[in-house]
């Protein structure tokens, strides 16, 4: 599993990175010391999990999760015990209180492994209602997805179909190598993108093969460029 280490204290980052290095199936994708750095690093490297400090200067660890449309699995690592209830309210996989031992970290990693095995449902077709019937769309048919209140509109050429779901939830059932979130309310099938234009304020205009144009969010710019093989 690929993990990111977030802690405002450099010695703590180094110690945790060293301890994680004793687990052959764990790769530390990076480390950072502030909430802003963490948001950017998670968007750029898309780790499977993040070991996240709670109390940091400026925004705290919970603010990091608030900024992410599709956060990775989280293990909070903190010297404070008072945040445990809130941590599990945001579906943290585990909560490590410093100073912890190697054995306790190993337990957290075991919980992460189990969580990651069960997190992503099997990729399947998308059931959409069409005039009293249910049509089963293969993911290969879909051009893009747009959040629309309590629904997601699934676009196939000029047609669109509402599905009662969240964009995050629907994306979790699809191949993450085929679909990419480009905005808080938009995801596109990557092989549909035909050309890309950089706009004045840093957004990207993605023109699809059927002529539709999607505007990415600035926060997603680097991730979109990386996914499409464009220079950063």
TrEMBL record:
One of its GO terms (molecular function) is DNA binding. It comes from the Bacteria. Residues 126-230 form the HTH LytTR-type domain. Transmembrane segments: none annotated. SUPFAM superfamilies: CheY-like (SSF52172). Coiled coil: none annotated. It holds the Pfam family LytTR. The modification 4-aspartylphosphate is found at residue 53. Keywords: DNA-binding, Phosphoprotein. Residues 2-113 form the Response regulatory domain. This is DNA-binding response regulator. It comes from Micromonospora lutea. The lineage of its organism: Bacteria, Bacillati, Actinomycetota, Actinomycetes, Micromonosporales.
């Amino acid at each position: 599993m690929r993990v990111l280490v977030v802690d405002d204290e450099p010695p703590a980052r180094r110690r945790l990175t060293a301890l994680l290095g004793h687990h052959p199936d764990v790769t530390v994708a990076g480390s950072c010391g502030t909430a802003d750095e963490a948001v950017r690093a998670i968007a750029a490297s898309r780790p499977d999990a993040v070991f996240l400090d709670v109390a940091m200067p400026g925004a705290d660890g919970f603010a990091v999760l608030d900024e992410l449309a599709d956060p990775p699995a989280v293990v909070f690592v903190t010297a404070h015990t008072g945040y445990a209830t809130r941590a599990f309210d945001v579906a943290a996989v585990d909560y490590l209180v410093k100073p912890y031992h190697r054995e306790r970290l190993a337990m957290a990693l075991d919980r992460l492994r189990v969580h990651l095995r069960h997190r992503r449902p099997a990729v399947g077709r998308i059931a959409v209602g069409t005039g009293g019937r249910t049509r089963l769309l293969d993911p290969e048919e879909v051009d893009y997805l747009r959040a629309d209140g309590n629904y997601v509109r699934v676009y196939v050429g000029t047609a669109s179909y509402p599905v009662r779901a969240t964009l995050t939830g629907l994306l979790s059932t699809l191949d993450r190598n085929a679909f990419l979130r480009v905005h808080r309310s938009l995801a596109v099938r990557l092989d549909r993108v035909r050309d890309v234009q950089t706009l004045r304020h840093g957004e990207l205009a993605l023109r699809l093969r059927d002529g539709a144009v999607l505007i990415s969010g600035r926060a997603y710019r680097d991730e979109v460029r990386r996914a499409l093989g464009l220079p950063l």
